[in-house]
Amino acid sequence: MGIVPEGGAVDPVALAAQARASIPIVDPGIETSPDADQQTYAQVTTWLWIDGSWWKTYTATASAGRVSATVTASPVSASWSTGDGGNVTCDGPGVEWRRGLDDDDTYCSHVYRQSSAGREGNAYPLTVTVSFEVTWSSNVGGGGALEGLERTSSRSLRVGEIQAVETE
């Protein structure tokens, strides 16, 4: 499909592809509780989330003359690989941990069963891949779904053990 404004034919679908390629989405930041900058523990629920200010709709527009196509990318899920063989898929960014919340106040968590001691770097690789649905529209009509996008981040997560000793 081509539109012919002054200056030549313009394909809104090609403009949509250009806009899709230019969407400014940086890789997501990984947050955990207990804090991944410190250490989490085996047999303790580890909350997983992505900053809510990152989890939003992103747009980009490409134009040629008076014809433009706007692409919208919306995050739909976060798939976590926990490094110990576990996988968690969350239909949202997760819940930021705050003092006073119970473990069942999050829908995005993982329980490590073993310490990461002895692993490379004494840590598990924690990876999140966020999937986006992508749509487009044009000021001259047309639009629909485009191939989705993904953004991935990784970090190391040390998992320790807490030992209890019965004294009685």
Describe the secondary-structure layout.
Blueprint: H1 12-21, E1 30-33, E2 40-41, E3 45-50, E4 58-64, E5 67-81, E6 87-90, E7 109-111, E8 124-138, E9 143-157, E10 159-160
Parallel strand pairs: 2-10
Antiparallel strand pairs: 1-3, 3-7, 4-5, 5-6, 5-8, 8-9
- Our count of helices gives 1
Based on helices, strands and strand pairing, what is the structural class?
mainly beta
Question: N- to C-terminal separation?
Answer: 81 Å
Low-confidence stretches: none
Radius of gyration: 22 Å
User: What's the count of strands?
Assistant: 10
Largest sheet: 5 strands, antiparallel
Counted up, domains total: 1
Determine the fraction of residues in helical runs and give it as a percent range: under 10%
Q: From N to C, what is the helix and strand string? A: HEEEEEEEEEE
Let me know the average pLDDT.
Answer: 91
Strand content: 35-45%
Tell the overall outline: elongated
Walk me through the structure.
There is one protein chain. With 168 residues, the protein is mainly beta. The protein has one helix at 12-21; strands spanning 30-33, 40-41, 45-50, 58-64, 67-81, 87-90, 109-111, 124-138, 143-157, 159-160. The chain has one domain. The chain has 1 helix and 10 strands, in the order αββββββββββ. Strands 4, 5, 6, 8 and 9 form a 5-stranded antiparallel β-sheet that branches. A 3-stranded antiparallel β-sheet has the order 1-3-7, with no helix packed on it. The protein has a two-stranded parallel ribbon with strand order 2-10. The N and C termini lie far apart (81 Å). The mean pLDDT is 91.
